[in-house]
Amino acid sequence: MSIPTYQLHHLCIYEKSPRDAMWNWLRWNHAIPAYYWEGSADMHHTGEGGVDYTFLACGAPFQMQLETGPYQFEYERKWFAEHDSGINHVCWIVPNAWDTIEPLTANGATVAMPYEQFGDSYNGFVAIDTEGRWIEIMEYVGGFKTPDVEFYPVGQAELQTLGVVQLCKDLDAQVKWYTEVLGQKIVHDARSNNDGLVYLADDTYDGRQCVSAFATPSIDAEHALMDRHGPCISSVLYQAGNLDMAFADAINAGFGEISAPAFDDRIGCRTGYVREPAGNIVQIRERLTA
User: Fold this and answer.
1) pLDDT tens digit string along 112-141?
2) Does the structural domain 7-140 have CATH classification 3.20.20.70?
């Protein structure tokens, strides 16, 4: 059976107070393409509870979703009780979510949330990959779709969301799993002895330029995150036409400096690290040339 296109869609971040947290992102050239808040008459309520989340975008199709309690499902509430605010999962769009359950579980994934249909909006489920990271698999149905943003850089710094960084215990095995099971392709490989960094992308990369970076910890903040949570989704990845300006804009927007832009041998360009007020790591790199 051919592998469907797993298209990178959004990164979910659990927040205590998303309306407060999002202002720092909005000051940093982000926009709100969609939101679903508790009490609104939308399709995102279940028998277990409702939702409160806001989508944020920045010059690219890959988005972030800030979510807070009461959450839809008990398993989400348990995760938040254990981990507190932080990056929770990556969401992938597929043509038919149901058809992906058996191939994923047959290749070592487990199901955290069973497949569910959300009326005329979307269907999907949440799986756990072979190192314990959560992945949401979703399909759109009817006329529903979370709006895309224009695919061009924003602001004088030409800032764009590029994708997500996931820290791995066994980097080679995870690259193999995501290429063979999710059909991702390698667009940049900087590995040596199961250490380093790899950029993976789906079949829409030429038009959308979104990547999922798999890496071993490189800076102290990543080592600390790995020590606390094990293999995890570590950070949001950006690219900028003017890295120094984008970095300064992030600091002015209320992000804290982790390390100033410096050359990164793994990707062959300069990268800086900041931390947004809720504690999540953000990487800003120079723009991809291809």
Assistant:
1) 889 988 777 789 999 999 999 999 999 988
2) no
Domains 7-140 and 159-286 share a fold: yes
Query: Residue 110's beta-bridge partner residues?
Result: 128
All structural domains of the chain with their residue ranges: 7-140, 159-286
Closest CA to 93 of 210, 15, 199: 210
Neighbours of 30 (CB within 10 A): 24
pLDDT < 70 positions in the chain: 1, 37-51, 69-73, 290
pTM: 0.92
Q: Does domain 159-286 have CATH number 3.10.180.10?
A: yes
